[in-house]
Amino acid sequence: MTSPSSATRIGAAVREDFPYFAAHPDAVYLDSGATSQRPAEVIDGEAEFARRDYAAVHRGSSMATGEATAAFEDARERVAGFVGAGERELVWTAGATDALNMIALGMSDASAGLGDDRFALGEGDEILVTEAEHHANLIPWQRLARRTGASLRYVPVDDAGLWTIDDLRAALTPRTRVVAFPHISNVTGQIAPVADVAEAARAVGALTVLDACQSVPHLPIDLTGLGVDFAAFSAHKMLGPTGIGALYGRAELLDALPPARTGGSMITTVTMDGAEFLPAPHRFEAGTQPVSQAVGFGLAAEYLSRLGMEHVAAHEAEMAGLLVDAVQSVPGVRLVGPAAGRPRGALVSVIVDGVHAHDVGQFLDDRGITVRTGHHCAQPLHRRLGVSATTRASASVYTTPDDVARFQDALGEVRGFFGADR
C-alpha cells in the first residue's frame, strides 16, 4: 500500500464528530457511497430546529411561520452556494431519484402540450444516456421515450465499464434532445468530463442532465461553471438526512419546465378551469415541505464547506488510491473501473474469483467491515461486465488508512475461507 500523506489526517481528525463511531468504535464503515454517516452538529441542529422552531413554511403570516421559513430558505441558500448555484436554481425534492423523475415528468407534460416546446419530445427525437447509469437516471428516460415516441440510445462501455468523451460524441446526432449521465459512476468510480459533455451536447442543441450524487459530497462542484442544464444530488450521501434531495436547473429552464407535482403552495392563481404557477424554485415544491430535513441538509453543506472541499477531495483521492492498492495486492480479486494511477471517485468495486459478492460482503461484515454488495442499482452495467453483482467499498471524510488496511487484510482471507484459492 502507498504511504499516506498529511491530507489523510482529515479522516482521523473529524472522526470524533460522528456519533456512529463513538457507538461503534471498532467499525470500518466503507459504505458511504450508499449512505454516509452524519456529524453530531447536523443531527443536533436538525433536532433543535424541530424542538424550537418547527412550523409550516410559506403559509400564513405568523411569527412561527416566518421563523421556520427563514430557516428553510437559509438552508436553500447554503446548499445552492455549496454547488455554485443561485437560490432560484435549487429545488428541494424527496431525493435525487425524485429530482430526476421531476425533469423527465416535466418533459412528458411538455410533450403533451402542457408546457414550453423546448422540452417537448416526439418521434425521431433521441435521449442519450450511458451504459453506466444508475437506474434512477435510466428508467425515467425509458418511460419518457415510451410516452413520447422518442428513441432511447446509450453510450456503450468497455470491458472495464468505462466510456469516453469520444464515445459520447460519436453517439450524438442532430436529433439528440437530452444527454443524461453520471458525474461519478457509483460502480466504477469513473469521473466524467462534465464540461466537455455539456459543450458537446450544447453543440447539437441537447439539454444535459447530470447525476451528481457521487460527486457533490466529494469534490468542489460549480454546476454553473460546468455548464450543465440540470443536476440532481441527495443529502444522505453528503452527511445529511434522508428524505431530501436537490434539483439544480438553470433559472430560465426551471421557470419554463412544467412542474411534475401540483397542489398547494406552488401557485399564483387557481380557478375551476386551471392554474398558474409560481416562478422557480417554489413552482416545484407542492404541498408540505421537508422543513427539518432541509435544515439538516444546509448544516451538512456548512460542515463540508468548513472542512474545505479541496481538502476533502485530496483526502478522498488518497483513500481511493489506497483502496486500489489494497485490491490489487490480493490475488484472485479483480478491480472494476479505472486502472491504478487513473483518477476515480472514492470507491472501488471488485469481483472476487470463485466467491459471490454477497458472500464476500457477509465475510467482511463478520469482521466489522461494512461494504455494499449487489448490482448497486446498475444492472445493465453489471450485465456488460459479465457478473450479477460486485462488492463495493466507498470512502468519505472520516475514512482512515487503518480502515483501508483492515479491508485489505480481510479481503485477502476471503478466497481461502470459501476454498476458492485451491
Automatic annotation (TrEMBL):
Domain Aminotransferase class V: 28-407
This protein's UniProt keywords: Pyridoxal phosphate, Transferase
GO molecular function term, any single one: pyridoxal phosphate binding
InterPro entries attached to this UniProt entry: Aminotrans_V_dom, Aminotrans_V_PyrdxlP_BS, Cys_dSase_SufS, PyrdxlP-dep_Trfase, PyrdxlP-dep_Trfase_major, PyrdxlP-dep_Trfase_small
Alphabetical GO biological process terms: cysteine metabolic process
Cofactor needs: pyridoxal 5'-phosphate
Protein name, as recorded: Cysteine desulfurase
Native source organism of the sequence: Microbacterium sediminis
